[in-house]
Design goal:
CATH superfamily of one domain: Multidrug efflux transporter AcrB transmembrane domain
Low-confidence stretches: none
Distance between the termini: 30 Å
Largest sheet: 4 strands, antiparallel
Radius of gyration: 32 Å
Number of strands: 4
CATH topology of one domain: Multidrug efflux transporter AcrB transmembrane fold
Structural class: alpha+beta
Number of helices: 16
Strand order of the largest sheet: 2-3-1-4
Helix content: 55-70%
Length: 428
């Protein structure tokens, strides 16, 4: 049992993130079902039900295909499935609508299903092939970035292929059993209202656009230019920042620093973090990094000049949270003799930093001078922050002058002496 003044708290629970991702997929799934129902009301509730069946069935087939090819159900795969939700019903809607049209023309169910499916099967396959070719190049991206996002295009391609199979097999079968025969050529009440609305509002607008082609093209060009001007406001990045409430603060003191020196820097960081009311809790590690808590951040080895704080906020806000981290960085810069970096979690491959500059050469003094000039240039560059220069601090080397031959005569190896001295310095 623990002493009375010590309690244990769960600081990291990855199941919460998984449940949130799966909850997003579930919510989007329900939204897709609702939109399909509203869209197909002009064809009737039976047609809507037939199309809605294609969504869960296509997802189930897609997940089975992914499993057969060795893909797991992770956040990248789930993102691909969410992206494909809007594509799963396209083929089924086209097939059901064409079957319903043939039924309104007075054909029998089986005849209507065969004729309607045969009529548009080539077009449906062509549209599906276009979608597949749009995502297929992403599956062949090289190196780490390609391996990282491979499961996303794989999920989309498998879902689209599954929807094609369902639309040309399951949907015609269900339509032959469920869609009503001998329906009026004008359709149900919703379809008649929709047709009347198209004739009243959309047809005159379309005629004006066709009669004034130059004005139509001018308006389209203005809309396009306006959308291009919004790009700087929206922003763009290869891998976006994670919307996690958690982040890391890394503390590095000069090489050769005692653990007590690093500990004082960690105490300053801990007190500073706890002074912000937005912070929920802080977990600290002295002399080593945190355990692996995010998929693209590897833990650091044991070092006396290293410490890390694992922080969780009460809430995440896309605008307020980055501003909060900037205020923390400003406070941390007040502490001398230590490099303190705030590292939010970023989606993407395993990288140490978004921008890395590697300088090679035989002379350490020259390397330090070049690294200092490079750091100075980066500091003056807009948008660059948290510059880490590993050779900024002077390194302390101790030559103990150990006679390894005499030490070996008394049964002491060179490695034992190094470990004993390192342990003594760390605990100082």
């Amino acid at each position: 049992t623990l002493p009375a003044d010590i309690r244990m708290e769960r600081g990291f629970d990855q199941s919460q993130s998984v449940e949130r991702r799966l909850g997003g997929l579930y919510n989007d799934f329900l939204i897709a079902l609702g939109l399909v129902t509203l869209t197909l009301l002009p064809l009737g509730l039976r047609a809507s039900s037939v199309v809605m069946i294609s969504i869960p069935l296509s997802l189930a087939i897609s997940i089975t295909i992914l499993n057969l090819f060795g893909f797991s159900l992770n956040q990248i795969t789930i993102a691909g499935l969410i992206l494909s939700l809007g594509l799963l019903v396209d083929d089924s809607i086209v097939v059901v609508e064409n079957i319903a049209r043939h039924l309104r023309e007075g054909r029998a169910r089986l005849e209507a299903v065969v004729a309607a499916t045969s009529q548009i099967s080539v077009a449906v396959i062509g549209c599906t092939a276009t979608l597949i070719f749009a995502f297929l190049p992403l599956m062949f991206l090289p190196e780490a970035a390609g391996r990282f996002i491979l499961s996303l295009p794989a999920a989309v391609v498998s879902a689209v292929l599954a929807s094609l199979f369902v639309s040309l097999t399951v949907i015609p079968f269900l339509s032959s059993r469920l869609l009503p025969e001998n329906e009026s050529q004008e359709g149900n009440v919703v379809l008649r209202l929709l047709t009347r609305g198209i004739q009243t509002f959309y047809s005159p607008l379309l005629n004006r656009a066709l009669n004034w082609p130059k004005m139509t093209l001018l308006l389209a060009a203005l809309l396009f230019a306006g959308s291009v001007m919004l790009i700087p406001v929206v922003g763009f990045s290869l891998f976006p920042a994670s919307d996690s409430r958690q982040f890391l603060v890394q503390i590095t003191t000069p090489d050769g620093s005692a653990m007590s020196t690093t500990g004082r820097a960690l105490e300053f960081v801990d007190e500073t973090l706890r002074s912000f009311p937005e912070v929920k809790w802080v977990m600290s590690n002295l002399g080593r990094g945190n355990p692996k808590i995010y998929y693209n951040i590897n833990p650091h080895y044991t070092r006396a000049n290293l410490a890390e704080a694992f922080v969780e906020l009460h809430h995440y806000d896309p605008d307020a949270t980055p501003a909060l981290m900037d205020r923390m960085r400003a406070r941390f810069r007040e502490y001398p003799g230590a490099e303190i970096l705030v590292r939010p979690f970023i989606n993407g491959t395993l990288i140490e930093a978004p921008i890395m500059l590697r300088i090679s050469g035989p002379d350490l003094t020259v390397l330090k001078q070049i690294a200092a000039r490079a750091s100075s240039v980066m500091e003056k560059t807009k948008g660059v922050r948290d510059i880490s220069n590993p050779v900024r601090f002077d390194r302390t080397d101790l030559n103990l002058g150990v006679n390894t031959e005499k030490a070996a005569l008394v049964g002491i190896g060179a490695g034992q002496i190094d470990r004993a001295v390192r342990l003594a310095l760390v605990l100082t």
